[in-house]
Amino acid sequence: MSNIFTDEVKKHDLHKKWNNTKKEAYLYQKLSDNKVQCQLCPRMCKIAQGQTGFCKVRKNIKGTLYTQNYGKATHVTVEKIEAEAVFHYMPGSKILSLGNFGCNLDCDYCQNWVYSQFQYTPESSIKEYSSEKVIEIALAENIPILSWTYNDPAVWFEFVIDTAKKAKKYGIKNLFKSAFFLTPEAVKMLVEVIDVFAISIKAMDEAYYTKFTKGWLGPVLENTKIIHASGIHYEVSNLVVTELTNNNESYDRMIDFILKDLAPTTPVHFTRFHPDYKYTCVAQTPLEDVMNARKRAKDNGIVYPYVGNVFESDGLNTYCPKCNELLIERFGLSTYIKESFSKEDVLCNKCGTKLPVYLSREIQ
Amino acid sequence: MKSFSYTWDDRYFLLHLQINKEEGQLLEVKIVRKFCDNTTREESVIVRPSGVGHRFLVTRTHPNELAFVCFYPSISKLEVYKLDDRAYYPTHSFYAD
Fold first, then answer.
1. What is the pLDDT of residues A230-281, one digit of tens each?
2. Which of B62, B89, B93 sits opposite A75 (nearest CB)?
């Protein structure tokens, strides 16, 4: 942990100082008395003139809702797609990871709290990035995927939509990693432009969501079903938090949801947590906990369960679901596609079983 | 050129390296990985001209990889961050020259 939180951490409160009218929000309605109601997420914040919503990056300026983070980023980093808990889409690919600031949740253990909780974000960490600039970087470095990540890109909605649309013209894919605390309308707009979704379901417990994330579970599950029905590639990750969700009941609820409402072949990642932000009184999740979660998932019919934030483990590898041949070996974020896996036909060379792995790469 | 050496341990397998430079400078950084059979593998990272800070991920690629050395231009400075998690952006470095 390096971003240590205390009560003395400086608040820069940029949301109180900025009045950026560059980009009007896509999803909102105007109310009486110069108020607006944001419709991006289930909070449906009613915002008075001069105020922001919960996320602190959508601001009512004279009766119009503007995003304060359009064309601004805090992080633009080259990473690997496995960093987003995505193992079945262009494995081993470089991604351009993009992060901004603000969030419509406030998770007690947020590892990127300096940026997700906008009141703490220093102005020096924020840089201007146009959609064209982002695409130019990706093309110059031969990166096939833009990954909208770090803090939740849900509140970067307009910039994600606009940039993803433009990036498509160059054959660049878009990955959206999010807690999916959004309205269905927002999800449907994302479905039009996003190529792969990395869905973070924090727990299958409404009380947990209320207490530890300040959000609620129902919309997250409904949105996951929308994504599932869309046919777009997605993977689910669950952060296994020490003393909160590292128990069989939590694992089983997640497994049940995937089996009943999604598909047994949905890749699911049980990921180790580390202490951060306001939840630092416990240790990192023991390896055996995520391995146990994975085993329970496998024993109950989940075909591709994985572990995360682990360097070396069987739980990182992809095996043939029929003959158990090792097809894709991973160490940390490094991926080794074995000769037993046919990249041309996307199947196990030993028994011929086809696998739900997307391997295509197109850059124009 | 300056260099930074790091030996992997059981706890951390992800690092962010950040090259701090002047706007407009195009630089090249080399990562030389060392393996337990005494072999090495070299990679090049191009630091784009725009911007004054360029951060990239260095991940341990295999259990047989024991360490790496980063060679970077003398006109730039290096900061290194340990990552506890994927998709994590630490703000405090453990090394800075």
1. 999 999 999 999 999 999 999 999 999 999 999 999 999 999 999 999 999 9
2. B89
Residue-wise pLDDT for A310-319, tens only, equals: 999 999 999 9
CATH for the stretch A72-315:
3.20.20.70
Residue among B55, B82, B86 whose CB faces A2 most closely: B82
| Residue of chain A with shortest Cα separation from B81 | A2
Domain ranges for chain A: 14-67, 72-315
pLDDT at A340: 96
CB contact set of A55 (below 8 Å; sequence gap of 6+): A41, A102, A103, A104, A118, A155
Inter-chain contact B87–A149, Cβ cutoff 8 Å? yes
Q: How far is CA A335 from CA A44, A93, A144, A316, B29, in A?
A: 41, 9, 17, 10, 23
Indicate if the pLDDT at residue A96 is higher than 60: yes
What is residue A58's DSSP assignment? Answer: E
Structural domains of chain B ordered from first start: 2-96 (2.60.290)
Would you tell me how many other CB atoms lie within 10 Å of the CB of residue A210? Answer: 12
Determine the distance in angstroms separating the CA of A331 from the nearest CA of chain B, rounded to an integer. 6
Does the beta carbon of A97 lie under 8 angstroms from any beta carbon of chain B?
yes
- pTM listed for this prediction: 0.95
Contacts of B56 in chain A (CB under 8 A): 77-78
